[in-house]
């Protein structure tokens, strides 16, 4: 077995391994179809090695050469489809069809030309370069610029340049006059070696992109309250810390802590399923009314918190009053149409960089406690004292 055939065997085994890796990892991905497309692409690409070995030992060079070309080009276009799924930049079916419709007949037409001629090299390598450029363009159009995304886009561009460069080097150094003599040439050994490096690099980077996506989703899910759809306490603290760490964070900021009134009575009277609907409705109401840069969270049970960046206490107080009024008039699934619920709110400002967010939350929580003692269904600012009024459950109106 000469060097070129050995590398063909290595490329085949590498492609099969990547096929398995992508199938396994796609089961954990948020976009499993992308991994399956990549797995199928590497499986198809591995067939090119089988066809090229058949050229060496078989007597059907034209068919085997056409099969190898078709396998590689089809695999590259399948990767483009997978990239489209992963980066939300769908492949244009007409572009792919047009490329195949032009490249496959052209490959048959140039078969009888010596491989060392410009016409053969250009006709053979150009479709591959175009397919790689389509993959790079899709990543660029996605707007994603994480390190793995940039590396993957660069690899596709380098691979496209590699295919384009082969047009020159095949003519310059000679790649054999026929398909069989190509496998015994030094050019084939170098070409297959470089292809193996690029296949491994591209495959590993694709895996890295999917793994990063899985990790990001896992982290996001760990910071999201599954019932309300808002951040949990961990997510709230992480997002608020990011805002406060900005060098030009514009103070003051405002924290609102809110609690549903008589929530235990709701659960006891109408059941926990109805209580879940109340939590869901309140979470959606907060998310719908909050500014785009606000951090909304459910701390646990019936307690919620809102962080309003670059917002004073007075503005936060008015915002909380709006939430209180909206919720008190809200009809909730699972409860009788005549039932209306209420919530109490505490508001506190984070006035200066030296203030601690934990102290601000405690201040808002204390204001909430005072609002509860003062009769519920009201908004109280930190340090504000309101005379108590007789307690009553708003849902029984």
Give the key terms:
single chain, 397 residues, alpha+beta, Rhopdopsin 7-helix transmembrane proteins, Alpha-Beta Plaits
Helix content: 55-70%
At CATH's second level, what is the architecture of the largest domain? Up-down Bundle
Mean pLDDT score, rounded? Answer: 86
CATH level 1 name of the largest domain: Mainly Alpha
Number of strands: 5
Can you characterise this structure?
It is a single chain. By secondary structure, the protein is α+β, with helices and mostly antiparallel strands. The protein has two domains: 3-221, Rhodopsin 7-helix transmembrane proteins (Rhopdopsin 7-helix transmembrane proteins), CATH 1.20.1070; 233-396, Reverse transcriptase/Diguanylate cyclase domain (Alpha-Beta Plaits, 2-Layer Sandwich), CATH 3.30.70.270. It has helices at residues 3-26, 32-57, 61-87, 93-109, 118-142, 147-173, 179-183, 186-222, 233-244, 263-270, 272-289, 313-328, 357-373; strands at residues 253-260, 295-300, 303-308, 343-350, 379-381. A five-stranded mixed β-sheet has the order 2-3-1-4-5, sandwiched between helices. Helix 13 links the parallel strand 4 (343-350) and strand 5. Helix 3 packs antiparallel against helix 4 (93-109). The relative contact order is 0.08. The model is unreliable at 390-397 (pLDDT under 50).
């Amino acid at each position: 077995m000469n060097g070129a055939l050995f590398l063909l065997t290595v490329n085949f085994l590498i492609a099969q391994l990547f096929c398995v890796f992508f199938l396994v990892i796609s089961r954990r991905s948020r976009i499993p179809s992308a991994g399956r497309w990549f797995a199928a692409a590497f499986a198809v690409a591995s067939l090119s090695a089988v066809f090229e070995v058949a050229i060496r030992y078989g007597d059907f060079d034209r068919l085997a050469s056409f099969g190898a070309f078709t396998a590689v080009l089809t695999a590259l276009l399948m990767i483009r489809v997978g990239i489209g799924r992963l980066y939300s930049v769908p492949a244009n079916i007409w572009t792919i069809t047009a490329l195949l419709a032009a490249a496959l007949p052209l490959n048959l037409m140039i078969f009888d030309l010596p491989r060392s001629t410009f016409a053969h090299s250009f006709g053979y390598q150009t479709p591959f370069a175009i397919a790689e450029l389509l993959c790079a363009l899709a990543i660029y159009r996605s707007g994603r610029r994480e390190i793995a995304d940039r590396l993957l886009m660069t690899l596709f561009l380098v691979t496209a340049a590699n295919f384009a460069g082969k047009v020159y080097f095949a003519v310059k150094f000679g790649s054999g006059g026929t398909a069989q003599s190509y496998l015994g040439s030094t050019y084939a050994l170098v070409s297959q070696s470089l292809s193996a490096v690029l296949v491994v690099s591209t495959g590993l980077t694709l895996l890295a992109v999917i793994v990063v996506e899985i990790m990001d989703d896992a982290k996001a899910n760990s910071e999201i309250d599954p019932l309300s759809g808002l951040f949990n306490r961990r997510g709230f603290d992480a997002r608020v810390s990011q805002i406060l760490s900005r060098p030009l964070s514009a103070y003051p900021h405002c924290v609102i802590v809110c609690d549903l009134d008589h929530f235990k009575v709701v659960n006891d009277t109408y059941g926990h399923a109805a209580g879940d609907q109340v939590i869901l409705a309140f979470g959606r109401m907060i998310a719908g009314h909050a500014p785009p840069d606000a951090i909304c969270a459910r701390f646990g049970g019936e307690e919620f918190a809102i962080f309003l960046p670059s917002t004073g206490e007075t503005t936060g107080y008015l915002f909380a009053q709006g939430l209180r009024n909206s919720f008190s008039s809200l009809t909730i699934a699972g409860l009788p149409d005549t039932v209306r619920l209420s919530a109490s709110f505490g508001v506190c400002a984070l006035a200066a960089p030296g203030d601690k967010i934990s102290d601000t939350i405690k201040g808002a929580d204390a204001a909430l406690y005072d609002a509860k003692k003062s009769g519920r269904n009201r908004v109280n600012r930190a340090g504000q004292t309101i005379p108590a009024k007789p307690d009553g459950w708003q849902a029984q109106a």
